[in-house]
Amino acid sequence: MIKKWLKIILILMLLYVGYVLISTTLVFKIHTPTAPDWQPAFESGENESGDRVMLVQDRFESGMARIQLIDQAEQSIEISSYAVHEGKYADLFFGALFEAADRGVQVRIILDGIVNKWNSDLRELSYAMFEHPNIEYQFYEPLNLLKPWTWNNRYHDKLLVIDNEMVMVGGRNIGDRYFGPEGAKDATNDRDVIVMNTDEERYEQSVLFDVGQYYDMVWNHDYTKAVVTDVSKRQRNKGKAREQEVKKAYEQAVEQYPQYFLEEVDWLATSFPANQVKFLHSPIERLNKEPIIWLELIHQLENASGFVYMESPYIIPTKKMLAYLEDSEVEIEKIKLMTNSFASTPNAVAFSGYYPNRHHLAVESNGLYEFQSNTESLHGKTYIFDQKISFVGSFNLDARSTFLNTEVMVLIDSEPFARHLQEEIDYAMDEKSLRVLGDARYEADPNVELAEVSDWKVRKIKALSYITRFFDYLL
Q1: Are 91 and 245 in contact (CB under 8 A)?
Q2: pLDDT digits (tens, 9 = 90+) for 373-396
Q3: What is the pLDDT of residues 128-149, one digit of tens each?
Q4: Angle at Cα 343 formed by Cα 358 and Cα 183, nearest 5°?
Q5: Residue 459 is inside which H or E element, if any?
Q6: Longest distance between any two alpha carbons in the chain, whole Å
């Protein structure tokens, strides 16, 4: 009798594994997104909104900018993030949020529902957030074992909205490695843009209005669920203890480094005017989505008359992505590309998807550059057209960003901002990156040292590429 039940259980387990494999792989290979109802975000033109833009490049400054924005909030804070990593910065960040909520600011937080499910520190904080009258906390697409096809559609947004007056958009998650000072080990380099509305009378033409509409849509969507709906006495006590820990971390930081917290920040002083700023986001759909952001990127490539710069931690052009280029007039030979190297990449699986395309990209483009470091990696998602139009946010050059994840980007028509952004990028390209040649070697550069990489890591990535090339539509 026991053997019979064990056999039944084994059969059910095998059936479930087959169900999961089909739902998470084959379904996405054959599913075709609906024909996109897409229009260009804008044509280059005059200022319509009064929005100004500011670049936040440095890791440490970006981390402090988030805290400073939270500290200045008077009415509301909305946060979106793909991942929160345990560590000192997460404690500081949530300590600032609790301090803001204590003074009456309404706080809303949306995080990815699978990536953050296993964070024990965050779980304990969720009890405290549930108990706080001014904090609401939700997961986008929490883990559902009966619907494995939902596992691939992850929440990749990164937004911080303050009082509906300022928004920070970028590619950084919440964690120590995104905001570490110079010399920090395993640091991740990215960038953010802060957009400020300077004309309340034209608020509905501002990016802030579009961001607010989008955030409310996601917040109220059926795919978004409350993380906690009730707490036990034990959970309440755990949450309270964790809340006190993050508040203490925040208070100690204020005491030790008052120069970063007590001085009022003049955001406008370092901002740039913009002719137009537009907010773009992926559709909130399951399976393969309409590639709205990819189509906008292609449109900007077609319109560019000269120099184009594209930076992504992963560059994995799949057949389905390239199909949208078939009738376009995109000239790859005018595009300069930058991504990670064997040495710098922290994501062997994603890099294995890029590796088979490396030779073609090096030969056909205006230059393929790879970031050289053993201690840092490239994580920015930035696109510049004709040194005038910039596209910055969370969108990677891969099928996952194109068809699967939620993504957010800001499209900025501002020559002074684009020039400033290009200067920052040129430094990383000239001082920290090497050009890949057609024979897969690097072009020698006396200013850049080739980063060492273990033979094991290279062999592992090359071996993985023979597997992942069949699943590049999921990378």
Answers
A1: yes
A2: 999 999 999 999 999 999 999 999
A3: 999 999 999 999 999 999 999 9
A4: 135
A5: helix 455-468
A6: 79
Count of beta carbons in the 10 Å neighbourhood of residue 303: 14
Residue 401 lies inside a defined structural domain of this protein: yes
The pTM for the full model equals 0.94
CA 165, distance to chain mean position in Å, is 21
Domain boundary among 268, 297, 321: 268
* Pair of tokens at residue 222: 């059926």
Residue 249: pLDDT band (50, 70, 90) is: very high
Supply the pLDDT for residue 142. 96
Q: Are residues 301 and 419 in the same domain?
A: yes
Q: What are phi and psi of 240, to 5 degrees?
A: -65, -40
- Residue 99: which CATH number? 3.30.870.10
Residue 1 predicted with pLDDT over 80: no
Q: Are residues 354 and 418 in the same domain?
A: yes
Distance, CA of 95 to chain centre: 23
The label of the residue with tokens 């034990």 reads: 234
| Beta carbons of 261 and 253 less than 8 angstroms apart | yes
Model confidence over 104-124: pLDDT tens digits? 999 999 999 999 998 888 999
Q: Which long-range contacts (CB under 8 A, 24 or more apart) does 87-90 make?
A: 87/175, 87/176, 88/176, 88/249, 89/63, 89/174, 89/175, 89/176, 89/178, 89/179, 90/121, 90/122, 90/174, 90/175, 90/176
- Same domain, residue pair 297 and 349: yes
Structural domains of the chain, count: 3
